[in-house]
Amino acid sequence: MARYVLAVDQSTQGTKGLLFDEAGLLVSRADRPHRQIVNAQGWVEHDPVEILHNTTAVCADVLAKAGVSSSQVVSFAISNQRETSLMWDKATGKPIYNAIVWQCARAAEICQRPEIAAQAELVRGKTGIPLSPYFPAAKLCWLMENVPEAKVLAARGQLACGTVDSWLLWNLTGNHAADYSNASRTQLFNITSLRWDEDLCKLFSVPADSLPAVHMSDDNFGCTDLAGVLDHKVPVHGVLGDSHGALFGQDCRVPGKVKATYGTGSSVMMHIGDRPRFSESGLVTSLAWGIGGKVEYVFEGNLNYTGAVMAWLKNEVGLISTEAEATDLAFVANPNDKAYFVPAFTGLGAPYWDSKATGLLTGITRTTGRAEIARACLDCIAYQIADLVRLMGQDAGVPIQALRADGGPTASPYLMQFQADIAGVSVQVPDLQELSGMGAAYAAGMATGLYDPAAIYDHIQRKEYRPAMAEDRRSMLYAGWLDAVGQALQHK
After folding, report:
1. Pairing mode, if any, of strands 266-273 and 360-362?
2. Distance between CA atoms of residues 186 and 85, nearest Å
3. pLDDT, tens digit, 9 for 90 and up, residues 262-292
4. Contacts of 198 (CB under 8 A, 6+ apart)
5. What's the CA gap between 481 and 362, in Å, rounded?
6. CATH class for domain 4-240?
7. What is the DSSP string of 25-68?
8. pLDDT per residue as tens digits for the range 341-352
9. Domain-by-domain residue ranges, the chain?
């Protein structure tokens, strides 16, 4: 009887159910979106109960779609949107507030408080990440201060704090757990000592006993029947933050390998080995994962808005009717137009880390029309990725030869070629798109002995885009981008 690994990729826009066979091939996929709860202040939230329901629902959907019996599933894996933060009551299992999404900058004031801002270097030294409302520490602090039930439950020892991985694990297995990749993104976890940091918990007023136990990413996190979707319980053996899952799925398992995930936002990661190194250029140091009893580290740069720019252009601006239309327009745009778009809708992430920066469309001339604006919005994705690729090569002291790319926007041949041109590196796009969920599934399959770590990636084919732009044009275009970013940083 054929055996399968079932995985979910719980992302910012929705939840995917993914089923992988004994060869590691994707057999079937099912999707369910969830609401984006945005108020007049631009605060972004998700309903945790909706996410949990969708998680089990897509598992049922994907099995039915594939015609696979639940008895053939041998392991379950989770990849998840990172930094999105929530709290729940351990006694009832009910969330006490919506999940605060990673994009949400409502906790900016907390990071600016003198007593917290003064500890910015301490925070970075322990966690590898700069003080920012982007990360869960400040979000959980906001919840402690603004949701009265949080303090009541904390006093009783009933408060649970976590990110989406721990919320799902709690509900599916009954265990309050997280993996190293997700824990390292909270700004409460010491990435050198590999434990929750008491000083940081006190700084952000987060009760240490409310945080999950942290495990290797391929540990057995407990067993689940997915609320009755399966006819038996299977072990949860692979849990990875989505960007870490994509790194693992891209087979970037050795130092020097680099990948970029193009999603709602983007993560660029470079494997840097089994010891932490720290950047002075605005890059983050995180744990890649804990696999096979060993932890490994990455440089990372996070961007708030990349693929989401296309959704904004379609849904809010109405300039395009489909996201693919932006590519068609980019190909016919005037090549000499000087328009740039900086998508600082909720500030700028790496390497600028300015939550007050505002977006702008600049360089408009009489030649700027619909096609040129659409192209500028596509180009801003590649420019932001290029910022990070350049810094990674510089901080690692290793020239980057290739960038492995994944995510929906990689379907745009214009964007991928422009990415190769403006970053000056080869861009390699695999013939599979579900890299985040695949990475978690592969970790689970390896842990259960279903997959051979040395051979499981052999089936992946990659399309390569090589740099073809003259160096003087590349330098001119990139200088224009840096000037546009400088304008955005001044508009606060």
Report:
1. unpaired
2. 9
3. 888 888 999 999 999 888 888 889 999 999 9
4. 208
5. 10
6. alpha beta
7. -EEEEEEEE---EE-TT--EEE-HHHHHHHHHHHHHHHHHHHT-
8. 999 988 888 888
9. 4-240
